[in-house]
Amino acid sequence: MLNAEEASARLAAFRRADWRIAAAKRAKKAGRRLQPVIDKLLEEFPQTYDAKVRQQYTRELVEVATALDTMSDKDRRNTMTALHPQLGNVLARWWVDAQDQPYVTGWSRRAFRAPRTPSISRRTRAEALRQIVWFIGPYEREATWLAAWAPFIESASGAYSASFAGVYAGPLLAAAIDLGGADGDAVLQTLIDVGNGDHPIGMMGRHVIVALLRASRVEGWEFIERLLLAAQRQEGLRQSILEAVDEGHPSAFSRMLDVVLAHDLLRFAASVRAAGTWLGIATDVQEIPKLTERVGSLRKFRLDAVACRTALTDGDPWDTYVALCAVAMHDVMQALQWAESVLGRTSPDARAAAVRFISATALSSSRARLLEILDDPSLDVAALANSHLTFGPNEEAFPADAFERLERFARRLPHGERAGALVGIETTEPTLSRAGVIAKMLTVRQRRPLSTLIPFVADMDPPTRSRFARAGRSFAPFESGSSRRPTTEDRENRY
Q: Count of alpha carbons within 13 Å of 113, Cβ hemisphere only?
């Protein structure tokens, strides 16, 4: 294994400084239809704090992703080959495979997938592709080389970026393995050699675990299983494996759940933390028996459709929530259809479990649905939905009826603040208070007159009251020096 200094020196010999110029030339040869797609991916991310500039760049990147999703397989391969001549086929395979991978990334990620709705993962995939191109662009090398050198590759732009090996290399190498042939076998063997510590260059890391779990080769799954069982006191290794298994091939995840339960691995803190990631819940080492039961339910609902359906139609809150998660790990849109059915159940606890799940999907449509749930007959369920509703101060577009739904909910709440009743799978009571709801009303007010908020002034908290006052002071019916006088509409919009 190389040390960092030696690896950096040797990697510099492979690096091509003019890689973007070379890629731009290949883009011209690819033709007028494909060139704009390629050029956008070669463009640097705007180095500015201007939100509008960054948002415009992101919109254009999503348009590129839409083009990649809708073009033919041949055009997609040609596009990717123009970006990287050695890994064009791998990139094309990765792009399609990524539609079936978890769409929520980052600290709050979930293992929810949307294989039949590529638009859900489009922005995530577009950003990932841009990052990958900038990481590997300077190195015109094949996938086997990448399997060894991934931990040493840094961002070509020199700007801060997520680790290539930790985030992007694993899925890319999984695609290389699943392309099959001698090259796929070579990548698989290289990663296993790295995992065993037998490779002269490669260094063990998350990219090895993710690649072997995501690929469809059973040999890779078996290797990770042996690695997990051999971890013993290596809590970091155990955590790295278990926090990646839900991102793996669905069959690999099911196998790893069997291993976890059969060998009582939930007695380890890293396993408890990983299980919390799988289910999107807070976990505690003092509640291992309950967690073991829920992980067992997850395994059962993933494999037994009848048991899963029973839990969704008549299960207790925990079974209902875990069953929704189990379905979403295959297709979140199907799980949301089931969530609608659960919201029709008479039990407030079941409906609360559905609310928690809908929030966990992190879809743009979730907020509109949570707003609708503010009219739930149970004030505690409605309060839970409200607790998951967020509105950014710089947002310009809100659901059209957001203000009215919040206003109706606010009128149902008591003056002052009190705790509601525990509901669903929650561990803390919902807060019943008008103040937070009124603050959201002010945020989503848009062009509604300020006078609509006057009945709620007494229930505003100090920050909201201050915002309300500033909104009134900032009203300018006409510009300085203008002869135009305030109209009736101006006065109504002010008050």
A: 18
Please, are residues 441 and 465 in contact by the beta-carbon 8 Å criterion? no
100-140 residue pLDDT tens: 999 887 667 788 999 999 999 999 999 999 999 999 999 99
Which of residues 191, 218, 252 is at a domain's end? 191
230: DSSP letter = T
State pLDDT tens for residues 218-256.
999 999 999 999 987 788 899 999 999 988 999 999 999
pLDDT in the model for residue 285: 77
At 432, is the secondary structure helix, strand, or coil? strand
Where is pLDDT greater, at 280 or 252? 252
**Exposure b/e, 110-129, CB count within 10 A at least 16 = b:** bbbbbeeebebbbebbbbbb
Rg over alpha carbons for the chain, rounded to the nearest Å, is 26
User: Residue 152 domain-assigned?
Assistant: yes
Phi, psi at 489, each rounded to 5°: -65, -40
Q: Under a CB-based contact definition with an 8 Å cutoff, are residues 373 and 385 in contact?
A: yes
Q: CA 477, CA 430: separation in Å to the nearest integer?
A: 42
Residue 333 in any domain: the answer is no
* Nearest-angstrom CA–CA distance, 219 and 299: 22
Q: Is the residue at 113 inside a domain?
A: yes
146-183 per-position pLDDT tens digit: 999 999 897 554 444 558 998 999 999 999 999 999 99
CB 82 within 8 Å of CB 26:
yes
Q: Which domain holds residue 421?
A: 363-495
Task: Name the one residue in this structure whose structure tokens are 């920050």.
Answer: 463
CB neighbours of residue 216 within 10 Å: 15
Task: Measure the CA–CA gap between 147 and 260, rounded to whole angstroms.
Answer: 28
Number of domains in the chain: 2
Dist. CA 44–CA 42, nearest whole Å: 7
Reduced to 3 DSSP states, what percent helix, strand and coil does the chain have, rounded to the nearest 5?
Answer: 65, 0, 30
